[in-house]
Amino acid sequence: MRIQFNDEPLECTEGTTLSALLAQLEQGKAGAALAVNQTIIPREQWSSYLLCEGDTILLFQAIAGG
User: Tell me: the pLDDT tens digits for 51-61?
Assistant: First the structure.
């Protein structure tokens, strides 16, 4: 199935979870947040959240500053 990850087209298999996708892309860093179709998904749901055809995923990295 086709999805978008950080504005790039990507193919993944049906039944892929957010956690599996991040592991596949080596993007599972601490301080990361994910939005699927413009909705933030809590980290505790990543392992059970199944991706669907056409989903748009954005990965955000927390940045400290002041």
Answer: 999 999 999 88
CATH code for the structural domain at 2-61:
3.10.20.30
Distance in angstroms (rounded) separating the CA atoms of residues 59 and 66: 22
pLDDT, tens digit, 9 for 90 and up, residues 6-35:
999 999 999 999 999 999 998 877 788 999
Name the pLDDT band for 66 (thresholds 50, 70, 90).
low
